[in-house]
Amino acid sequence: MNSIVRCPVCQQSLSEQGKAWHCENNHHYDVAKQGYCNLLLANQKGSATPGDDANMLQSRHVFLSAGHYQPVSGAINRLITKHCSTLRQILDLGCGEGYYLSALKQQLNNPDAHYYGTDISKQALKLAARHHKSINWFVAAAKNQPFLDHQLDLILNIFAPADWHEIQRILKPEGHVLLAVAGSNHLQSLRELIYESVNAHQPERFIEKFAAAFELIESTDCQFTLQLADNESIRSLLHMTPYFWQAGEQCRQSIEDLQSFSTPVNVRLYLLKLTNSQSD
Q1: pLDDT per residue as tens digits for the range 105-152
Q2: Segments forming the whole domain that contains residue 256
Q3: Does residue 60 sit within a domain?
Q4: For the domain that residue 72 is a member of, what is the CATH number?
Q5: Model's pTM, two decimal places?
Q6: Do the Cβ atoms of 226 and 262 come closer than 8 Å?
Q7: Of 71, 90, 118, 93, which is closest to residue 176 (Cα–Cα)?
Q8: CB 149 within 8 A of CB 169
């Protein structure tokens, strides 16, 4: 089977040869010792170290590994297995440390499927590749995905930036997207500790982004009360979210000193099918 991975320089197909990816124009990209490959060109970075930093990613890894968001992962997997069949090429766009893609791979248990994770954060891919060896991990920007046109059966986009024109380009006709965004009162109690006034999230605003090219197959909310009874999990929750940077030092310290904490979790899931694959 030919590779669907695309060279970021000449847009020709890349093939994996040993510890590197090569194209017919002799561009090559080494696989790092941790197991990921960097396909992010210097002019696509936007900053010296784009994406989530090591502290945020390690906190998220600790939190997710403890199973606190297993209901979210389970809801994602149920929605996909309910509506999607014959999945062969699967991408997690903005994969972070790889938790959700790895869980889906285990759920599908399909030896014929190929799994890819992309993220602009090199630190994220180091962590993902270290813990999940059988997935292809690539450093890449959301608007410059390293895949040939119309090759992917399913794209996950979970709490991550997305470029919908690029998604249209790389997704097969009638391929699916699983989009996960914050529901109205997601992490409400945490936000109330940080902000004087808390506005409800508006997951419906994402509909206008995909309405022209995608059919909405199903939407559902995954809701539960997250109850944390240890300080490490509370600190990990704070540090893995962007709210950490928006909290003042005194506020951070008061949250980090908590020994128990509970908050609503509300994640809106959209399963979409591509109906218009024309990209600009």
Answers
A1: 999 999 999 999 999 999 999 999 999 989 999 999 999 999 999 999
A2: 48-274
A3: yes
A4: 3.40.50.150
A5: 0.95
A6: yes
A7: 90
A8: yes
